[in-house]
Amino acid sequence: MVNAARPSRADYYKALADTLPQHALVVTSLGNASYLWASMHHQPENFYFEDAMGLALPLALGLAIAQPRRPVIVVEGDGAVLMHMGALVTVGAVAPGNLTVLLIQNGVHAASGGQALTNANLDLAALALSAGIPRAKNVTTPDAFAAAMRESDGAGARFLVLSTKPDTEVVRPPIAFDPVLTKQRFMSAIGAPRYVPTMFGGGRLEHD
Amino acid sequence: MVASGKQSADPHRPSEILETLKRLGFGVAIAVPDSWLGEILVRIEHEPTMRLVRATHEEEALAIACGTRLGGVRTAMFVQNAGLLSMGAGMVSLAQRYQFPLLMLVSYRGTIEDPVFYHTPKGRVTEPVLRGLGVAHARADRARPIGPQVERAATYAEEACCPFALLLSQEDVQW
After folding, report:
1. Do A52 and B53 touch (CB under 8 A)?
2. End-to-end Cα spacing for chain B
3. With an 8 Å Cβ cutoff, is A196 touching chain B?
4. Which domains does chain A have, with CATH numbers?
5. Chain B contact for A132, CB < 8 A?
6. What is the structure's pLDDT at A3?
7. Which of B24, B47, B55, B170 could pair with B61 in a Cys bridge, judged by C-beta atoms 3.0 to 4.6 Å apart?
8. Which long-range contacts (CB under 8 A, 24 or more apart) does B148-156 make?
9. Tens digits of residue pLDDT in A112-166
10. Nearest of A163, A170, A166, A165 to residue A32 by alpha carbon
11. Beta bridge partners of A79
């Protein structure tokens, strides 16, 4: 829920950096979700979105399916989730225990300059619970967030709604956001198999 | 367009599609329902080497597929052509921008061969929209075995690092 006195995205990101599980993979939504995280904690195991609003959560779900032994953390915005609310139902149905959804609830479309949301005051944790995600709760402080991150894994995805003040000033990222480079750097870091072609088709994905 | 009056040589084309996916090492299928796709999705669900994810919307399915491929699993999508029309933004700003190789197996509704004529508006615009989006695609040839066509589509996706849509008729994909 959106509260009057809210921590900043940076406050939560500091707590995230301090509590990041070993071997975690982090997917960040467009705008400052990616730019600020790249500024504070750039790693090859980060997958940064630029644009494609609302699709960070379903991409992270796919990644969690493909990498079941690694914790996958996705930072998504409230406006982005409203664009693709069906993804909550899919996350609830798949129930990946290695997926943590961090939902920045700042009540605005921050990436587009702070424009109003259709509804800024939804109980998004209740929405997630209704969608079949059992470990959903609203969080209002970085300390509570850090405590929630230290809780052991359970059944299904963890879904933390972080009450956050809007940050509409765009952070300048310290690295180039080349999308193909982002993808290749990430896949190399996790040791993903690469496609080995053959002259006449029938190539396979193979580990080096 | 592929014009053909010949009957297909292989006995059961949906089985050929599934066997080809298994042989090529596809580990995940992401799907949104269409009546032609119903049974093949159930068959995939029972395959020990494949996992089926049922998404709520085709653009969401596309993003899930990008995620599984990012995680190193060869991924196919099963959608109706209505889904190609509704996934445009994710197609250009995610799948194509990041160059994800994805095989999209599409029930091609609304052609002259489709007995359900309310699909006609989608059939009429599907290929022009794919060309407009720059999505590589082909219409499966019913006169030739379907397995090699699926394999070539999958190879194209990997070699060109992009999604590839193979447009399938009812007899290709309905079990």
Report:
1. no
2. 24
3. no
4. 9-206 (3.40.50.970)
5. no
6. 54
7. B55
8. B148/B20, B150/B16, B150/B17, B150/B20, B150/B21, B150/B103, B150/B105, B151/A201, B151/A202, B151/B20, B151/B24, B152/A201, B153/B103, B154/B20, B154/B24, B154/B26, B154/B74, B154/B76, B154/B103, B155/A197, B155/A201, B155/A202, B155/A203
9. 888 999 999 999 999 999 999 999 999 999 999 999 999 977 789 999 999 999 9
10. A170
11. none
* Residue B3 CB partners (closer than 8 Å, separation 6+): none
Residue position matching structure tokens 């042989």: B23
Task: Report whether A101 contacts A76 (CB < 8 A).
Answer: yes
Q: ipTM of the predicted structure?
A: 0.96
Residues of chain A found within 8 Å of residue B147, distances taken between Cβ atoms: none
Positions of chain B with pLDDT lower than 50, given as ranges: 1-6
Q: What is the pLDDT of residues B21-61, one digit of tens each?
A: 999 999 999 999 999 999 999 999 999 999 999 999 999 99
- A203/B155 Cβ within 8 A: yes
The predicted pLDDT at position B2 comes to 41
Using the beta-carbon criterion (under 8 Å), do A62 and B63 form an inter-chain contact? yes
DSSP E strand boundaries for chain B: 28-31, 51-54, 75-80, 102-107, 136-139, 163-168
Structure tokens that stand for A190 in this block: 């996790």
Yes or no, beta carbons of A179 and B97 under 8 Å apart: yes
**How many whole angstroms separate alpha carbon A151 and alpha carbon A128?**
19
Top-level class of domain B46-173: alpha beta
pLDDT 10s digits, A30-63: 999 999 999 999 999 999 999 999 999 999 999 9
